[in-house]
Protein backbone atom coordinates (compact mmCIF):
# COMPACT_ATOMS: atom_id res chain seq x y z
CA UNK A 1 0.00 0.00 0.00
CA UNK A 2 1.29 3.47 -0.89
CA UNK A 3 1.99 5.94 1.89
CA UNK A 4 0.95 9.58 2.00
CA UNK A 5 2.66 12.10 4.26
CA UNK A 6 -0.09 14.49 5.35
CA UNK A 7 0.21 17.81 7.20
CA UNK A 8 -2.93 19.43 8.61
CA UNK A 9 -3.76 21.80 11.41
CA UNK A 10 -5.73 20.61 14.42
CA UNK A 11 -9.28 20.04 13.18
CA UNK A 12 -11.67 17.59 14.78
CA UNK A 13 -13.41 17.19 11.41
CA UNK A 14 -10.18 15.96 9.78
CA UNK A 15 -8.82 13.86 12.65
CA UNK A 16 -10.51 10.60 11.57
CA UNK A 17 -8.48 10.75 8.36
CA UNK A 18 -5.22 11.28 10.23
CA UNK A 19 -6.06 8.52 12.70
CA UNK A 20 -6.74 6.04 9.92
CA UNK A 21 -10.37 5.62 10.91
CA UNK A 22 -11.34 6.89 7.46
CA UNK A 23 -9.44 5.21 4.64
CA UNK A 24 -8.14 6.62 1.37
CA UNK A 25 -8.43 3.89 -1.23
CA UNK A 26 -5.00 2.42 -1.88
CA UNK A 27 -3.12 4.62 0.58
CA UNK A 28 -1.98 4.69 4.19
CA UNK A 29 -1.75 8.10 5.83
CA UNK A 30 1.42 9.09 7.66
CA UNK A 31 0.58 12.22 9.68
CA UNK A 32 3.32 14.83 9.96
CA UNK A 33 3.06 17.39 12.74
CA UNK A 34 4.22 20.93 11.98
CA UNK A 35 3.46 23.58 14.59
CA UNK A 36 2.35 26.11 13.73
CA UNK A 37 0.95 24.54 10.59
CA UNK A 38 1.60 27.83 8.78
CA UNK A 39 5.25 26.80 8.90
CA UNK A 40 4.42 23.88 6.60
CA UNK A 41 2.93 26.14 3.91
CA UNK A 42 6.28 27.58 2.90
CA UNK A 43 7.98 24.20 3.00
CA UNK A 44 5.31 22.72 0.75
CA UNK A 45 5.32 25.58 -1.76
CA UNK A 46 9.08 26.01 -1.95
CA UNK A 47 10.28 22.42 -1.52
CA UNK A 48 7.25 20.14 -2.15
CA UNK A 49 8.23 18.51 1.14
CA UNK A 50 4.97 16.66 1.82
CA UNK A 51 2.56 14.55 -0.22
CA UNK A 52 -0.58 16.32 1.02
CA UNK A 53 -0.60 19.60 2.89
CA UNK A 54 -3.04 22.21 4.06
CA UNK A 55 -2.23 25.58 2.46
CA UNK A 56 -3.49 29.12 2.67
CA UNK A 57 -5.83 29.60 -0.32
CA UNK A 58 -4.10 32.74 -1.59
CA UNK A 59 -0.73 31.02 -1.38
CA UNK A 60 -2.12 28.12 -3.41
CA UNK A 61 -3.50 30.44 -6.09
CA UNK A 62 -0.15 32.20 -6.33
CA UNK A 63 1.65 28.84 -6.48
CA UNK A 64 -0.69 27.74 -9.28
CA UNK A 65 0.16 30.89 -11.22
CA UNK A 66 3.88 30.30 -10.63
CA UNK A 67 3.49 26.74 -11.99
CA UNK A 68 4.52 25.10 -8.75
CA UNK A 69 3.79 21.38 -9.09
CA UNK A 70 0.77 21.34 -6.77
CA UNK A 71 -2.80 20.23 -7.36
CA UNK A 72 -5.68 21.12 -5.02
CA UNK A 73 -9.04 19.68 -4.10
CA UNK A 74 -11.95 21.89 -2.89
CA UNK A 75 -11.67 21.01 0.80
CA UNK A 76 -11.57 24.09 3.02
CA UNK A 77 -10.96 23.08 6.63
CA UNK A 78 -11.33 26.52 8.12
CA UNK A 79 -13.48 29.60 7.55
CA UNK A 80 -13.50 32.97 9.25
CA UNK A 81 -15.17 36.34 8.98
CA UNK A 82 -12.92 39.39 9.16
CA UNK A 83 -14.77 42.52 10.25
CA UNK A 84 -13.35 42.02 13.76
CA UNK A 85 -9.78 41.70 12.57
CA UNK A 86 -8.81 45.37 12.29
CA UNK A 87 -7.59 46.80 15.59
CA UNK A 88 -6.69 50.48 15.91
CA UNK A 89 -3.99 52.02 18.08
CA UNK A 90 -5.31 53.95 21.06
CA UNK A 91 -3.29 56.90 19.74
CA UNK A 92 -4.63 56.73 16.18
CA UNK A 93 -7.95 58.54 16.44
CA UNK A 94 -9.38 56.26 13.74
CA UNK A 95 -13.17 56.09 13.68
CA UNK A 96 -14.29 55.09 10.19
CA UNK A 97 -12.87 52.79 7.49
CA UNK A 98 -11.98 55.72 5.22
CA UNK A 99 -9.79 57.06 8.04
CA UNK A 100 -7.36 54.23 7.24
CA UNK A 101 -6.32 55.91 3.99
CA UNK A 102 -2.75 57.13 4.17
CA UNK A 103 -2.15 55.31 7.45
CA UNK A 104 0.22 52.46 8.45
CA UNK A 105 -1.36 49.05 9.09
CA UNK A 106 0.43 45.95 10.36
CA UNK A 107 -0.01 42.52 8.78
CA UNK A 108 2.28 39.49 9.09
CA UNK A 109 3.00 39.40 5.35
CA UNK A 110 1.28 41.19 2.50
CA UNK A 111 0.01 38.03 0.83
CA UNK A 112 -1.55 36.34 3.88
CA UNK A 113 -5.11 35.35 3.07
CA UNK A 114 -6.61 37.31 5.96
CA UNK A 115 -4.99 40.44 4.56
CA UNK A 116 -6.43 39.75 1.12
CA UNK A 117 -9.94 39.38 2.54
CA UNK A 118 -9.64 42.47 4.75
CA UNK A 119 -8.36 44.68 1.93
CA UNK A 120 -11.10 43.38 -0.37
CA UNK A 121 -13.79 44.16 2.18
CA UNK A 122 -12.41 47.63 2.93
CA UNK A 123 -12.25 48.43 -0.78
CA UNK A 124 -15.55 46.93 -1.96
CA UNK A 125 -17.76 47.67 1.04
CA UNK A 126 -16.36 50.97 2.31
CA UNK A 127 -14.57 52.55 -0.66
CA UNK A 128 -11.18 52.58 1.05
CA UNK A 129 -8.21 53.27 -1.22
CA UNK A 130 -6.11 50.40 0.11
CA UNK A 131 -3.25 51.37 -2.21
CA UNK A 132 -2.80 54.55 -0.18
CA UNK A 133 -2.12 52.53 2.97
CA UNK A 134 1.40 51.54 4.02
CA UNK A 135 1.31 47.85 4.95
CA UNK A 136 3.89 47.12 7.66
CA UNK A 137 5.06 43.47 7.68
CA UNK A 138 7.35 41.40 9.90
CA UNK A 139 7.57 38.13 7.95
CA UNK A 140 8.23 36.88 4.42
CA UNK A 141 5.62 35.97 1.84
CA UNK A 142 5.47 32.29 0.91
CA UNK A 143 5.84 33.31 -2.73
CA UNK A 144 7.90 36.46 -3.04
CA UNK A 145 8.04 39.15 -5.66
CA UNK A 146 4.38 40.20 -5.77
CA UNK A 147 4.22 42.68 -2.87
CA UNK A 148 3.66 46.28 -4.03
CA UNK A 149 5.83 49.29 -3.25
CA UNK A 150 3.63 50.40 -0.33
CA UNK A 151 4.89 47.52 1.85
CA UNK A 152 7.36 48.32 4.62
CA UNK A 153 9.38 45.76 6.58
CA UNK A 154 9.85 46.01 10.35
CA UNK A 155 13.58 46.31 10.95
CA UNK A 156 13.96 46.84 14.70
CA UNK A 157 12.80 43.41 15.88
CA UNK A 158 9.58 44.58 17.51
CA UNK A 159 6.39 42.62 16.98
CA UNK A 160 3.34 44.15 15.33
CA UNK A 161 1.59 44.08 18.71
CA UNK A 162 4.39 46.15 20.24
CA UNK A 163 4.28 48.61 17.37
CA UNK A 164 0.51 48.95 17.71
CA UNK A 165 0.61 49.54 21.48
CA UNK A 166 3.35 52.12 21.02
CA UNK A 167 1.34 53.94 18.35
CA UNK A 168 4.09 53.43 15.77
CA UNK A 169 1.51 51.89 13.45
CA UNK A 170 -2.06 53.15 13.27
CA UNK A 171 -3.80 49.78 13.06
CA UNK A 172 -3.06 46.09 12.64
CA UNK A 173 -4.72 42.80 11.86
CA UNK A 174 -5.22 40.39 14.73
CA UNK A 175 -4.41 36.71 15.27
CA UNK A 176 -1.82 34.82 13.23
CA UNK A 177 -2.13 37.45 10.51
CA UNK A 178 -0.85 40.17 12.80
CA UNK A 179 -0.69 40.97 16.48
CA UNK A 180 -1.53 37.50 17.80
CA UNK A 181 2.01 36.18 17.29
CA UNK A 182 5.61 37.28 17.14
CA UNK A 183 8.33 36.15 14.79
CA UNK A 184 8.36 33.94 11.70
CA UNK A 185 6.18 30.78 11.66
CA UNK A 186 8.73 28.26 12.84
CA UNK A 187 8.86 25.89 15.79
CA UNK A 188 8.56 27.93 18.96
CA UNK A 189 6.44 30.61 17.29
CA UNK A 190 5.30 32.82 20.13
CA UNK A 191 1.67 33.58 20.84
CA UNK A 192 1.44 37.07 22.28
CA UNK A 193 -0.56 37.75 25.45
CA UNK A 194 -3.98 39.33 25.31
CA UNK A 195 -3.89 43.06 24.70
CA UNK A 196 -5.67 45.69 26.79
CA UNK A 197 -8.58 47.36 25.05
CA UNK A 198 -10.51 50.61 25.28
CA UNK A 199 -8.68 53.58 26.75
CA UNK A 200 -5.68 51.42 27.66
CA UNK A 201 -4.99 49.77 24.35
CA UNK A 202 -6.12 48.93 20.82
CA UNK A 203 -9.79 49.09 19.94
CA UNK A 204 -11.74 47.53 17.06
CA UNK A 205 -12.41 49.55 13.93
CA UNK A 206 -15.94 48.11 13.75
CA UNK A 207 -17.99 48.15 16.96
CA UNK A 208 -20.50 45.54 15.71
CA UNK A 209 -18.33 43.24 13.57
CA UNK A 210 -20.56 40.17 13.81
CA UNK A 211 -23.61 42.08 12.60
CA UNK A 212 -21.66 43.56 9.70
CA UNK A 213 -20.10 40.23 8.73
CA UNK A 214 -23.43 38.42 8.77
CA UNK A 215 -25.07 41.15 6.69
CA UNK A 216 -22.18 40.98 4.19
CA UNK A 217 -22.51 37.21 3.90
CA UNK A 218 -26.29 37.35 3.40
CA UNK A 219 -25.90 39.98 0.67
CA UNK A 220 -22.96 38.48 -1.19
CA UNK A 221 -22.83 34.78 -0.37
CA UNK A 222 -19.10 35.20 0.30
CA UNK A 223 -17.85 33.11 3.22
CA UNK A 224 -14.07 33.66 3.52
CA UNK A 225 -11.99 30.57 2.83
CA UNK A 226 -9.02 29.65 4.98
CA UNK A 227 -7.00 26.55 4.16
CA UNK A 228 -7.21 24.38 1.09
CA UNK A 229 -5.81 20.88 0.55
CA UNK A 230 -2.92 20.58 -1.92
CA UNK A 231 -1.30 17.42 -3.33
CA UNK A 232 2.04 17.07 -5.04
CA UNK A 233 1.16 16.97 -8.73
CA UNK A 234 3.53 14.08 -9.34
CA UNK A 235 1.27 11.85 -7.26
CA UNK A 236 -1.80 12.92 -9.22
CA UNK A 237 -0.06 12.20 -12.50
CA UNK A 238 0.80 8.76 -11.20
CA UNK A 239 -2.72 8.12 -9.86
CA UNK A 240 -5.43 10.36 -11.39
CA UNK A 241 -8.01 8.90 -8.99
CA UNK A 242 -6.17 10.16 -5.90
CA UNK A 243 -7.84 13.61 -5.72
CA UNK A 244 -11.32 12.08 -5.86
CA UNK A 245 -10.42 9.45 -3.25
CA UNK A 246 -8.85 12.05 -0.97
CA UNK A 247 -11.86 14.36 -1.28
CA UNK A 248 -14.19 11.50 -0.40
CA UNK A 249 -12.10 10.70 2.67
CA UNK A 250 -12.19 14.29 3.92
CA UNK A 251 -15.95 14.41 3.34
CA UNK A 252 -16.46 11.18 5.30
CA UNK A 253 -14.25 12.39 8.15
CA UNK A 254 -16.31 15.55 8.40
CA UNK A 255 -19.59 13.61 8.22
CA UNK A 256 -18.53 11.46 11.16
CA UNK A 257 -17.51 14.44 13.24
CA UNK A 258 -20.78 16.26 12.58
CA UNK A 259 -22.77 13.13 13.45
CA UNK A 260 -20.91 12.86 16.75
CA UNK A 261 -20.90 16.60 17.51
CA UNK A 262 -23.70 18.36 15.59
CA UNK A 263 -23.33 21.56 17.62
CA UNK A 264 -19.60 21.84 16.84
CA UNK A 265 -18.72 21.95 20.52
CA UNK A 266 -15.19 20.80 19.65
CA UNK A 267 -14.75 24.00 17.62
CA UNK A 268 -17.17 26.56 19.13
CA UNK A 269 -16.20 29.31 16.71
CA UNK A 270 -17.45 27.19 13.82
CA UNK A 271 -20.59 26.44 15.82
CA UNK A 272 -21.26 30.15 16.20
CA UNK A 273 -20.61 30.71 12.51
CA UNK A 274 -23.05 27.92 11.63
CA UNK A 275 -25.76 29.80 13.52
CA UNK A 276 -24.91 33.06 11.78
CA UNK A 277 -24.98 31.66 8.25
CA UNK A 278 -27.79 29.22 8.94
CA UNK A 279 -25.94 26.19 7.59
CA UNK A 280 -22.76 24.18 7.28
CA UNK A 281 -19.81 26.19 8.70
CA UNK A 282 -17.24 24.45 6.48
CA UNK A 283 -18.84 23.46 3.16
CA UNK A 284 -16.67 21.45 0.76
CA UNK A 285 -17.04 21.30 -3.01
CA UNK A 286 -17.21 23.70 -5.95
CA UNK A 287 -20.86 24.72 -6.13
CA UNK A 288 -21.12 25.57 -2.43
CA UNK A 289 -18.00 27.72 -2.61
CA UNK A 290 -18.44 29.38 -5.99
CA UNK A 291 -19.02 32.93 -4.69
CA UNK A 292 -16.17 32.70 -2.20
CA UNK A 293 -13.67 31.37 -4.74
CA UNK A 294 -14.59 34.00 -7.31
CA UNK A 295 -14.23 36.76 -4.70
CA UNK A 296 -10.82 35.52 -3.56
CA UNK A 297 -9.52 35.45 -7.14
CA UNK A 298 -10.97 38.91 -7.80
CA UNK A 299 -9.46 40.41 -4.64
CA UNK A 300 -6.09 38.78 -5.38
CA UNK A 301 -6.08 40.20 -8.90
CA UNK A 302 -7.03 43.67 -7.69
CA UNK A 303 -4.23 43.58 -5.11
CA UNK A 304 -1.61 42.56 -7.66
CA UNK A 305 -1.06 39.05 -6.34
CA UNK A 306 -2.50 37.39 -9.44
CA UNK A 307 -2.20 38.52 -13.05
CA UNK A 308 -5.29 40.14 -14.59
CA UNK A 309 -5.76 37.13 -16.91
CA UNK A 310 -5.50 34.53 -14.14
CA UNK A 311 -8.46 32.16 -14.65
CA UNK A 312 -11.36 32.92 -12.34
CA UNK A 313 -13.65 29.99 -13.03
CA UNK A 314 -13.54 27.82 -9.87
CA UNK A 315 -13.25 24.44 -11.67
CA UNK A 316 -10.03 25.61 -13.31
CA UNK A 317 -8.38 25.98 -9.90
CA UNK A 318 -8.65 22.31 -8.96
CA UNK A 319 -7.93 18.86 -10.30
CA UNK A 320 -10.59 17.48 -12.62
CA UNK A 321 -12.02 15.05 -10.09
CA UNK A 322 -15.43 14.34 -8.57
CA UNK A 323 -16.30 16.80 -5.80
CA UNK A 324 -19.98 16.71 -4.84
CA UNK A 325 -20.84 19.31 -2.20
CA UNK A 326 -20.24 17.81 1.23
From TrEMBL:
Span list, region Disordered: 304-326
Gene3D superfamilies found in the cross-reference section: Periplasmic binding protein-like II (3.40.190.10)
Protein name: 4,5-dihydroxyphthalate decarboxylase
Organism: Nocardia jiangxiensis
Amino acid sequence: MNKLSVVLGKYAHAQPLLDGDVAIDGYAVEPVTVEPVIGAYRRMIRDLEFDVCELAPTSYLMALQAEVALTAIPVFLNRRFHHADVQCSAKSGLRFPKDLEGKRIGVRAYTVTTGVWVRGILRDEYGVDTDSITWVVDDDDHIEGRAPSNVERVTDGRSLGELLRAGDIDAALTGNAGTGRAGAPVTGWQATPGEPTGDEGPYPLFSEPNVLATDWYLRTGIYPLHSVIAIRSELVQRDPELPTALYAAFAEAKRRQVAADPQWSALPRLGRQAERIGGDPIPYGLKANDASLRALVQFSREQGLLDPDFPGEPPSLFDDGSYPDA
